[in-house]
Amino acid sequence: MEVATEISLEMYRRMTRIRQFELAASEMFRRGQVKGTVHTYVGMEASGVGVCMALRETDLIVGTHRSHGHNIAKGADTKRMMAEILGKEAGYCKGRGGSMHIAAFETGSLGALAIVGSGIPLAVGAALAFKMRREDRVAVPFTGDAGTNTGNWHESVNMAAAAKLPVVFVVENNRYGVSTNISETCAIEDLSLRAPGYGIPGVRVDGFDVLAVYEAARAAVARARQGDGPTLLVTESYRLDGHYAGEPEVYRSRAEVEGFWKLEPLRRFRTYLVEHKVASDETIDSIESEVKREIEAAVQFARESPEPDPATAMDYIYA
Amino acid sequence: MTSTERDSVSLGGAQPGFSPSLIVQVPDDVPHKMLTYQEAIREGLREEMAGDASVFLLGEDIGKHGGAFGVTRTLFDQFGPERVRNTPISENTIVGAGTGAALVGMKPVIEIMFADFSLLAMDQICNQAAKMRFMTGGQCKVPWVLRMPQGGGAGKSIAAQHSQSLEALYAQFPGLKVVFPSTPYDAKGLIRAAIRDENPVVFLEHKMLYSLRGRVPDAEYVLPIGRCDLKRVGADVTVVADGSMVWHAMQAAQTVLPQGIDVEVVDVQTLAPLDEATLGASARKTGRVVLVAEACRSYGPTAEWGMVAMEQAFDFLKGPIVRVTGRHSPIPFANALEEGVWPGTEDIVRAILSVAEY
Predict the structure, then answer these.
(1) What is the signed CA dihedral for B296, B195, B32, B186, rounded to 10 degrees?
(2) Pick from A228, A232, A234: which is nearest to A163 by CA?
(3) B110 phi and psi angles, rounded to 5 deg
(4) Is B287 left (phi over 0), alpha (psi -120 to 50) or beta?
(5) pTM, whole model, 2 decimals?
(6) B98, A125: Cβ pair inside 8 Å?
(7) Strand B32-36 versus strand B213-217 pairing type
(8) Residue B286 pLDDT more than 60?
């Protein structure tokens, strides 16, 4: 597929931004500077970026507990994201949400919901509104492989299919629900096979290959925009970090993880860009150093931002 | 008559047996009509739908069929399938889709066929919709209404999974509002307010009240959410009640009147946020408090009302607060057993007489 150079480079930039953001967040978590938990998107960058680059600003995504990457892919500001992870008033959610609930509504997020499967119906409802109002918009709920075993997922795919709603159901198969491999909880290996049962197309794509994801997402989004209804898009990926930063990972071997590191999407895309003369090593190096400075600035901004005022603890419960 | 029409009529048609004259909220000289509670809700929905294109209905069998209790009947013919939307039997996703639509500016009114079925959607109601605004630091609003019939009585005999009273459950979740009208007048004014509210509102309807008639003004009106309503002003005993128990309380007040006991009836028509001021003021005035709810006794709504009365009126209380509630039991099928589980007018009379002795 021919992809304009600036789009390719923007993809690389966003993927790099996700990786650097996650490394910084994990590092702060390990040092005890981030409270709660951090679920990183390391290894899955091509999936979120490939999908979100196929969307318009007015299209909406719904995230999960593992949605730093989705937010960055959709264009969220890393300063405000990092501030949220540190529980600061300058964060997107003013410190009320934290890592698991980062949602930048201004960039087209409908929220990040940290109960597996629970965000999916929101996308169905937003798409229903788009269809009722004849708006040319698409809603994209992200979930992992384990999320496809929830009632919400099945109910939502069915409801959206029955009403031909403009939804692209993205399933990022990172192979694990916490510690449990999808092969233990599901009798099919290809999760896109679930689609025909609901009367919609199912597409399976290499989730380490950002251009493949982008191409598949564009087709699914175009189908939704034409009024032909939802598509199930499965991106075959891998969670290179543990379930959360620092998780002991007793359920899988180092060899398995190292095998997948060989496939990781950033190096692969960099090699592609250079080999196909889309960009020089120098150009890519400069993107990387720009992003590195951006993330350093985000960390500094977040650290220096004020805590929320305890007197505002009861704010935002009711409109 | 088709079988579906028969279902609607039979489920909504039981006679409650309360005299409309017990609660008259519209004076004789104000132009009005007599509507049932069911019709009043429908008229409220109709007016809000006619006035605001973002209002739409979502639920199981609410289209041509008109819902299990016929509340949405005729709305499908008037507004069509886009705005009166039949859904699959997928409660969690019905509510979640309502939330998603609300997040992008619609005003969905979701019908859950029986409040009991809403337990399938607890995650979407309590974990998602109730918390969305808070978790996102005020970036969004969820202006939906979740309508559902609850409670039982009047010989409906629909047993343990179609008869529960769940108001206290939902009132526990910060972010939700919980409304429970007791009369046609309140039902119409409060459904309109619930639709206009910018928060998720759980709107409970009592099954036994659907066929109850009452005066509803011809002129447009909206009632405020967040208020206890004094259904009867009295000096001697405060009876706090919700839903159909308000009617039993009014009957009980009539019963004890010849004995010189002047009862004040406080209708908790909004359970959350609770109007503690009105409840407390009444308790301070009479010093004698009886709490009445059909819901199960343990951790039920009366537990909260009693604590509020104690906090707000401790020094004024002349004796212990008494509660009259449904027993801590699932609802049985047999009519004879049903009657043994729920409180009625006589139980309230006994409670009033007991506190009147202080």
Answers:
(1) 20
(2) A228
(3) -95, 135
(4) left
(5) 0.95
(6) yes
(7) antiparallel
(8) yes
Distance CA B157, CA B146 (A): 24
- Fold that domain B3-217 belongs to in CATH: Rossmann fold (3.40.50)
Cβ distance B136 to A121 less than 8 Å, yes or no, reads no
Chain A residues bordering chain B (beta-carbon distance below 8 Å): 60, 62, 91-97, 101, 103, 105, 110-111, 113, 115, 118-130, 132, 139, 151-152, 155-156, 158-159, 162, 315-319
Q: CB distance from B105 to chain A under 8 Å?
A: yes
Task: Give yes or no for B10 touching A (CB within 8 A).
Answer: no
Query: What kind of architecture, by CATH, is found in domain A5-305?
Result: 3-Layer(aba) Sandwich (3.40)
Q: What is the pLDDT of residue B16?
A: 64
Residue B248 buriedness (CB in 10 A; 0-12 / 13-18 / 19+): buried
Q: State the Cα–Cα distance between residues B172 and B191, nearest whole angstrom.
A: 21
**Which CATH number does B229-356 carry?**
3.40.50.920
Residues of chain A under the 70 pLDDT cut? none
| Whether the domain at B3-217 and the domain at B229-356 fall into the same CATH topology | yes
* CA angle at B330 for the pair B324 and B333, rounded to the nearest 5°: 105
C-alpha distances (whole Å) from A204 to each of A47, A158, A192 are 12, 19, 6
